[in-house]
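Q: I'm writing up a methods section and want to include an example of the input and output format. Could you take the sequence below and give the corresponding predicted structure tokens, formatted cleanly so I can copy it straight into the document?
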Amino acid sequence: MVDHCQAYEHQHLHALQQTIVDRYNSDSEIQALLLTTAIGGLGLNLTSADTVIFIEHSWNPFTDLQAMDRAHRLGQTKTVMVYRLLAKGTIEEDVMTCQRFKTAMAAAVIGSDGNNEATDLKALAVPQDAQERPKKRTKGLDSILEEMGELWDQAQYDSLGRSYDS
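A: Here is the clean output for your methods example:
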């Protein structure tokens, strides 16, 4: 297997990055490209990849999604399978719990229809006369807090073995 893998690490120069990716995409003998999420998550076009296996997990779920997108590129003709290797009772389990929480939090803030409420947030940030402020926002703070309450409770924090009280 080692003869059919290529590794890319931090010490490789940026100029070498495209050479490595081109070789991986064009050489059918190379069956695996080993990358860290930090290296493999940005600026690569890995359309010849059909499998992504995470053995490390970022605390930021969007970092991992960005890394997955390296294989889900324009020109991809294969179905891409994504796997996560996790060991029960390890820090990775906590990281994945945190990722799920952050993803749900982002979805609650952005809204179920996928539309960002940035215009409402901007309107709140800019000082205006009370008469200019909209009478009712489409998704109020109470609604967001209600959804957040369903996502996470103190018992779930406590189950991580750390105290998060202020």
